[in-house]
Amino acid sequence: MPIYRQIIDQIKYQVTTGVLKEGDKVPSVRELAARLAVNQNTILKVYNELCRQNVLKIERGDGTYVSSNKQTIPVAERRKTVSNVLREAAILAVQLELPIEQVGELLQKEYGYIVSQRASRRKTDLSEK
């Protein structure tokens, strides 16, 4: 896979998982190119493609920002991200010889916990406004 596609996928992954949030400033073209040891034109191509997909927005003279939330990323790509993480969990479960039923129970428990935590945070955020 070309390096620019890998970088695009990584940035989308960070948006999907909430590492990068709407309004976050991303590194400049020069800074990210230096950090990843790639040509600046590669990063420019990445940023332009992500702008075309409405994941990033470039503010001339100010920088590049995450323009939207994870809903901008197609469902198929979000599913792929989750599938990749679940594949790693499945490998670990097989190595530890956990039955699929227990793995399913663990996933349901964790999912339920996270959903309830997010709901609690939203209530708190709304009550503080």
UniProtKB/TrEMBL annotation:
A single GO molecular function term of this UniProt record: DNA-binding transcription factor activity
Coiled coil: none
Keywords: DNA-binding, Transcription, Transcription regulation
InterPro entries: Tscrpt_reg_HTH_GntR, WH-like_DNA-bd_sf, WH_DNA-bd_sf
Pfam family, one: GntR
Domain HTH gntR-type, chain residue ranges per copy: 1-69
UniProt-recorded name of the protein: HTH gntR-type domain-containing protein
